[in-house]
Write a structure and sequence with these properties.
The strands form two sheets. Strands 1-4-3-2 form a four-stranded mixed sheet, covered by helices on one side. It has a four-stranded mixed sheet with strand order 5-8-7-6, covered by helices on one side. It has two domains: 1-52, 2,3-Dihydroxybiphenyl 1,2-Dioxygenase, domain 1 (Roll), CATH 3.10.180; 61-118, 2,3-Dihydroxybiphenyl 1,2-Dioxygenase, domain 1 (Roll). The chain is α/β, with parallel strands linked by helices and 118 residues long. It contains two helices and eight strands.
Length: 118
């Protein structure tokens, strides 16, 4: 079984799409009523539909993106800082073991970007 997609509400679908496209390289897969489905290079989908309000989620809730190397995480961190993306938790790193940080998307959903030695 494979996790196929996550479905998010957004106060501004266009702004959310631009965020995921610019920061993570997602592209539009297809329209979904007033919303859209977007897809990354690994085939993972995010459905984004309009929402008047975004529910308050527990502090621990987040979506996680695992990258292939520590260097990729460091490059993504630099990219996010350069794009002035809101950093929700700064970089935690033990060189050669793990690297991880959190950002917030335009609607406040927390996203973890990480790599862990395995």
């Amino acid at each position: 079984m494979t996790l196929n997609h996550v479905h998010l509400g957004s106060k501004n679908v266009k702004s959310s799409f631009e965020f995921y496209k610019t920061v993570f390289g997602f592209r539009k897969k297809f329209d979904h009523g007033e919303g859209i489905f977007i897809e990354n290079s690994a085939g993972f989908l995010i459905a984004i539909d309009p929402a008047n309000e975004i529910p308050e989620l527990p502090e621990w809730f987040h979506l996680g993106f695992c990258l292939k190397s520590e260097d990729e995480v460091l490059a993504m961190y630099t990219k996010c800082r350069d794009l002035k993306v809101k950093i929700a938790r700064d970089m935690l790193q033990e060189q050669g073991e793990y690297a991880s940080f959190f950002v917030s998307d335009p609607d406040g959903y927390k996203l973890e970007i990480s790599w862990h030695k395995e």
